[in-house]
Amino acid sequence: MRRSLLALLALLALHYLHWRVFHSLNLSSPLATGLSLLLLLAEGWLLLSGLLPLLLAWRRFSDGRPEADAAQARWQASGWRPTVDVLIPTCGEPLPVLERCLRACSQLRYPHRQLWLLDDAGRPELVALAARYGARYHHRPERRHAKAGNLNAGLALSQGELVAVFDADFVPQQHFLERTIGLLLDPEVALVQTPQHFLNADPVMRNLAMEAWLLPDEESFYRWIEPVRSAWEAVVCAGTSFLVRRSALAEVDGFVEQAISEDLVTGMLLASRGWKLRYLGEKLSAGLAAETMLDFVRQRQRWAAGTLQALRLRQGPLRLRNLHPGQRLAYLEGALHWFNTVPRLLLLLMPLSIGLLGVAPVLLTGSAVLGKLLPLWMALLLSTGWLNRGSRHALLADLPGWALAVPLAATVLASLWGRVQPFRITPKHREQGSGGIAPVLALPLLLLLALNGLNLAWILRHLAAGGSPGGWLGMLWGGLTLLGLLVALRACSDPPAGDPSPWLGLELEGALLGRDRRGRPMELALSITALSERGVVFHASAAAALPEGCQLERLQLQVPDAALPPLPVQPQLCDGRLHWAWPAEPCREREAFLHWLYGRPGAWPQRQAPPEWRALLALLRRLLSPGRGQRAARLSLVPQAPGTGAG
């Protein structure tokens, strides 16, 4: 069925392009010809580059979990217990973020491991923090070659047969090594990559208050693109949450220091040397997504610059020898993804030609809409979610992305000009103050909104006067563009935020322990809806049931396959929340709770994107109710599963 659908989409796309080339061009004047050809070029590029992933998906692929199950069983039966160095590169991340990572790494169940904290900021307080969790500390004063240089410095100090890498904001689950080591029983396998998951909602989801309706962009990459590339032996190393063989890294002289995206380029270099890269599509760790829209955009700009820079490097997909054609094509498809931002920007601007210039860039008839355009659109809308394994919508996922159109197009053009963007760490765990929109993001969108509004007004004027070329097309096209720009502008508006600790939404039962006004012990059953390192939220009915004047002391969580001790809480409710009353020094209760909260197997669910029509209605409700979901008190929840407790 999958191949039949892929063939149908390819045929519909080619059928549409044939009509566009031979029957839809407006050649009535030099200006019309130029605009019509420019639009055709943009559409053709997007459609043909969109066919490339479909071509790659023709080969059968797996997300790697069945293979990992079999490999883990073989490994457990074998006597191979390799030593593992866990490298944690850091450069100024806040201490709570870094401690979260160190704590989780120290709780990895595999005993033959050594933690290394590689500090490029040289903070004295990290020496004691590393010692608390059994990690060795290293600081290199010169800080050359950014993250790649830091990792290579760690490689020079350590000696383990295998190397695991976690960014400082990532938290591995306790069975990470047990799930990945088995895949390296094959002596030809160099690296095992796992998905990136996030403890917090990205700014698009949070700013639109659409956490329940949207999934992050990374879901599509790790659920669809990585498995497809795995079938072509072209797995992308993602820079964190991977396990690699030291001897393989030694063969290529460590991580490639000349690259902005050292992970991507090092993985391609390993593949060119005949090493196999494996992908395990199981969420075994979670990190922090960008916390403001500006940081989100800059992060994508860095990814784009790094991917495009790789095209010029001798270790890149164009110049590497010994890559077979399927590998080279799969790696090049990743670069085409970023080139697509330029034609998308052209499609965003093209409706302006109808009203402001009086030129229709495409000759569209009713029969062409019904016979050429509508079948292709409907097929894409109905099939995208299924092909992407429920990881994204067809239309809705692209609307907020219009906020990235101008910045990413500028980055692509600068990269083509030869400008190399320096490596820049995405800030994490910051209070956002009053929130708002960064001017560098707002100004292009406001300019496009003004031009689009003027364009629509001009079209309406001509329609009222008796019509104009492409008037109704301009109204529809301009209206959709206006909607997309409004969504993008709303997505750029960061709400005020205080405590940056992530909140996780999950349903649990518990019991509040305390004393009534007479000092007698009391216990109240309650249903919990959200948890974080700072506190707990439960159904409002529980607050109403609390006896007047009672003093709350502890909360007993009822969790599957685990026995957590009662946790200390502050005595008073605040907005339906209870805050933990952790002591200043580390305590057993807090360590046990955080280990369960982040480290248990099965904590991160494989969500399915809700039906697109329902998600679009929810988005329209957000647009029609300004301020809804933007209150600082609103919790931005990332869903979590109770977990299985099994590894």
Layout of SSEs?
Blueprint lengths: L1 H22 L6 H27 L8 H13 L6 E7 L4 H12 L6 E7 L5 H8 L2 E5 L6 H12 L4 E4 L5 E2 L3 H5 L8 E5 L9 H5 L9 H15 L10 E4 H6 L10 H11 L3 E4 L5 E2 L6 H18 L14 H15 L1 H9 L2 H5 L9 H22 L17 H13 L21 H26 L6 H21 L11 E13 L5 E11 L3 E4 L1 H6 L5 E8 L8 E2 L8 E3 L8 H12 L12 H13 L12 E3 L8
Parallel strand pairs: 1-2, 1-4, 2-3, 6-8, 10-16
Antiparallel strand pairs: 4-7, 5-9, 6-7, 10-11, 10-13, 11-12, 12-15, 13-14
Helix pairs in contact: 1-2, 1-16, 2-13, 2-14, 12-17, 14-17, 18-19
Task: Outline the structure in words.
The protein has 647 residues and is of the alpha/beta class. Among the domains are: 2-51 and 339-491, no CATH class; 83-160; 503-599, Thrombin, subunit H (Beta Barrel). It has helices at residues 2-23, 30-56, 65-77, 95-106, 125-132, 146-157, 176-180, 203-207, 217-231, 246-251, 262-272, 293-310, 325-339, 341-349, 352-356, 366-387, 405-417, 439-464, 471-491, 540-545, 588-599, 612-624; strands spanning 84-90, 113-119, 135-139, 162-165, 171-172, 189-193, 242-245, 276-279, 285-286, 503-515, 521-531, 535-538, 551-558, 567-568, 577-579, 637-639. It has a seven-stranded mixed sheet, sandwiched between helices. Strands 10, 11, 12, 13, 14, 15 and 16 form a seven-stranded mixed sheet that branches. The protein has a two-stranded antiparallel ribbon with strand order 5-9. A hairpin with an 8-residue loop joins β13 (551-558) and β14 (567-568). α1 runs antiparallel to α2, α14 crosses α17 and α18 (439-464) packs antiparallel against α19. The longest helix has 27 residues, at 30-56. The protein is globular and about 85 Å long. The protein starts with a helix and ends in an 8-residue tail after the last strand. The relative contact order is 0.11. The model has no long low-confidence stretch (mean pLDDT 90).
